[in-house]
């Protein structure tokens, strides 16, 4: 045994290992929702945080954070998640307006887009995550009597294994166009699981389909171990993100998609901060420096 407490990356529930990261995003969305200059609104987010003993005392309003926006976690990092939510809300809605009616959220976590976005008629949202996360989410949403604005299908699956059957068995149709999202997911997966995921998205999509995902370009994540964001997250929530991220070599998924004929573009979060006039900007020792948001379209006319 070593002296450091191991975090179990493999626990099934939402309240341990990688499942806890879903709460981090939920708390950030709650804070974003009630900002005066909010970029995205998710009124369900705070209920997830309050319902779980592991995080029930985390702040869900920036006013409850003593240093306010000066807090690297609940200020800058939470704003990052708010911006990411808004940018990917826009991506999904823009994409379904061009025709696809199937939306697949990979590593959906506590995402409530099925409940809060105004989808065109006939849309179906498939939420893929581990069973424990989806069960917790179901319980909270049921207690709130929340009603989805779209047909919603939950797909319990481990994205490190063969998840394709789980999706096609519940009605996903590979012959019809689809829109896919992997938000805050890929860096938790081993490289081969990411390669498999991208291969499967390519195999399960027709022309007119789209995919957005978040990637990290850093070759050595440990360089940022002492960055304000990671340090504050460790100290204020006990979540050691660097421990949870997969440390193996990363595939070049954007390049792989381009080689498969997809048209891809890559942006930094800071590009969107400038576009929206709010959000994080670069700073020294910045754990967000290598984050990229990739948008890929399959043979879009
Ligand atoms: C940081 S959260 C992001 C959740 C959501 N996409 C969002 O942005 O709100 C990461 C999510 O990925 C899920 N996840 C991580 N590894 C997974 C795996 N091997 N199989 C299925 N889901 C996984 C976790 O359970 C968690 O819900």
Automatic annotation (TrEMBL):
One of its GO terms (biological process) is methylation. Keywords: Methyltransferase, S-adenosyl-L-methionine, Transferase. Its EC number is 2.1.1.-. It comes from the Bacteria. One of its GO terms (molecular function) is methyltransferase activity. Pfam families: LCM (PF04072). InterPro entries: Ppm1/Ppm2/Tcmp, SAM-dependent_MTases_sf, SAM_mthyl_Trfase_ML2640-like. Gene3D superfamilies: Vaccinia Virus protein VP39 (3.40.50.150). Exhibits S-adenosyl-L-methionine-dependent methyltransferase activity. Belongs to the UPF0677 family. This is S-adenosyl-L-methionine-dependent methyltransferase. It comes from Streptomyces capillispiralis.
